[in-house]
Amino acid sequence: MRTRQVAPSTEFLQERVSYLEEANRRYMSILDMLASSGDFHGNLNTAKDSAAIFRATHVQASRILSCRTIGCLESMDDGTFELVSWDPEDGRDEIQAEIDAKIMDGTFAWALNRNQAILVPLTNDRTLLLHVIATRSHIRGMCVAILQGDSTAVDGAALNALSIVMYTCAYALESLALYAILNENMATLEERVKERTRDLAAAREQAEAANLAKSAFLANMSHEIRTPMNGIMGMTDLLLDGGFSPVQERQYLSAIKGSADNLLSIINDILDFSKIEAGKMQLDQVPFQLRGTITQVLRSLSVRAAEKGIELVSSFEKGLPDALAGDQGKLRQVLINLVGNAIKFSDGGEIVVGVTTATNDGAAVCLRFSVADQGIGIAPEACERIFEVFEQADSSSAKRFGGTGLGLTISRRMVELMGGQIGVESIPGAGSTFRFTCCFQVRQTVPDPAQPSELRNQQVLVLDRSDACRQAIVAALDEWGMMPVPAKDAAEAFALSESGVVPRDRSLLALVDVQSLGTDCWNLVERLQEFCGGRDRIIIMTGAGCRIDTEKIRCHGIAGHLAKPLVYDELKEVLCAVLTGECLERQAHGTSIPHWEGERTLNILVADDVEVNQLLAVTLLNKQGHSVTVAGDGQQALEAYAGGSFDMVLMDVQMPVMDGLQATRKIRELEGASGRRIPVIALTAYAAREDRERCLAAGMDGYLSKPFKGEELAAVLFSHCGQGQRQHTAETPPAAQGCPDNSVTALLVFNRESLLCRLDGNEELVPRFLTMFNTSVATRWEELLRATVSGDREVIHRQAHSIKGAAANIGAERIVEIAREIEDVAYAGGQDVFALLLPRLRHELDVFSREIGA
Fold this sequence. Notes:
There is one protein chain. By secondary structure, the protein is an alpha/beta fold. Helices cover about 50% and strands about 15% of the residues. The chain is built from 27 helices and 22 strands. The strands form four sheets. Strands 6, 7, 8, 9, 10, 11 and 12 form a seven-stranded mixed beta sheet that branches. A five-stranded antiparallel beta sheet has the order 2-1-5-4-3, sandwiched between helices. Helix 1 (about 10-45) runs parallel beside helix 5 (about 155-240) and helix 18 (about 635-645) packs parallel to helix 19 (about 660-675).
């Protein structure tokens, strides 16, 4: 029996019809979206910026979903999101309010990590749709839509279509960014290629210029070396021919010496430059007096300046610290180079060396130096180039003035090594001013010298035609508490009395530059004596090389005589002597050669394979009264030593058959049996530290760098042979506690007179040498201790030898003896011997430090 089918209800059919209609509308919407996708891609392709891409994107999304409002947010570089497009125009605030709320509750961040649409119910029958706009590498933004109704009104097909639109938008944005980068690179690529081409051309020009400068330097250097060599060889040939008067011979010899000095200066410049390039130039920290250093530099160059009618002047800022510690030698070298150049390129006028303070914190000071001349000047384009290697301001100047062209390069490197900078300002035809800075330590333990009470409030007439020199003297006198009265000539000085500046009833001193008085010099001196209130009130100043008859000075009642450029310590001394009535007998002091009278002459063995060097050594030693035996190589020296009795050996290091180091070792071996040690001094053309240490390690006691002068040779003889011969009359200090050796306690802790003799009586150098000794011996003491612990006999011997040599040079006699004992037992002694000797050496080092106040 067939069952009768029940007809669907009207409600069911109505619901079915509605569903089919809705599905049809959705399919039609999707078909419409697909049909419009061509327009969407066209809009993306024509978009010029991200805002246009976002607008096209939410227009396309509106075709898929029925949105109340819709917009897009762009991801910014700082991590924030900015709403850049929306629809309709009045929907911005509604979208922004909902986004702010979802950022606060974390929904927005959650949506960023999803690759699909997120639907969030809102109030008032609304639904929020969030869909991230992202590629695999970057998040580009977020699509935001507010839908009317609940989330069930959105089907899956629409959401899938929406995701496709968002992916398309993300990649369009990424393509836009890449295209912008590509455009930027294309825009700048041509400019970068041009810039790189310019750099390469500049580098090529610089390299070519450097090669040309180097070739010019080598050609100039060849000329510079050949010039003095030709002078030496030519004058020597003339002298060998003979037949000249003594006056002519002396002139020829002076020419040879001048050429030799010039050649040595050139070689020293090359060696200094080589040291700098190799990074082996180091700073020495030694105490020195600033004003004394600078004025002595000017004094050493005064003869050259006087020959060209140039006035050298030093000017110091008031209150400038004077007791400093630093590399005095390099400061001197820079000043000598700059002032020497100023003299070379000037034909008169003044050269003023000024010093002022750049910074001063009490412990360290940075000083600003200037060297100003009135010479030929430097072209502006050459002011920087002159400090470069192988460069000169004008290559033609080398032919006219000579020189290696390395001086300014060396000076710049030295200034930089001392923590400063150097530069130049110049006007062609009007002169140049070189300025540089250097940093030094301020010696706190040295108080500022008290000014003599005799100088305070004393009125002094300063008569000098040079404005710079007059101002510098006035500044110095003012700092000493005196009352300087400046005048440029005698007429101006006499006018001071008429104007009442100088009271008629008051006597005064006068510093008078005789060249400022003109041809009527001595008549004006007599009138100035009346002006000053009597005789013995005038101190005359003369330029270098200007000779004044001492009888004329005495007859005219001149109180004192000073050579220019002035050394201010000398000026102060003369002023004090005149004011106190002391009689000063001044005479020119040449370089003195240390000697010891009443002692036996020395028998000296000279080993050298060069006949000229042999002749020089023999001549100098014979002149000092010593007996000399000559050997032509190390083997001959060894045979002469074995067959004779000598007080000293001067041993050349580089010799054929057997060199000086080998010969010295052989001599030390022969001495082992006799127990007697003879001083051996190395003669070497090398002065590097490693070369010196090789000499000392071979058993030599010291060294002389070639070429050496007579006073240097005499100082070495006195250091190693004179001290042992001299009888000390000074009171013997009491025996030191814990140092039982009578042979040591009988010696001086510090033989100051011995050190002064080696320094040619220069008292200012004593603190410098003491500081150098303490610094050096502290390091060697530590190395000696380590070598004793490790049992390294060679290092023990070498360090004891070094301490002994340094102590002998400084006059520390007790340290010399104990270091000698350690040196003698270095290879034979046991640990018990070192345990006894090392505390004694430490004790004497401490006693020496207390003695000198270190």
